[in-house]
Amino acid sequence: MIHAIRGTYDILPGDVEIWHAVEKRLRETFHAYGFGEIRLPKAG
Hints:
Blueprint: H1 16-32
């Protein structure tokens, strides 16, 4: 059986759409203030 890492949880259908809307709003707000997205390599 696969167990979630302690302190984490899955975002399931129904909640994913809410997260997408929140992330979109945050991206728009950050962009309006001149911030951009960066992606960092995973450690390890």
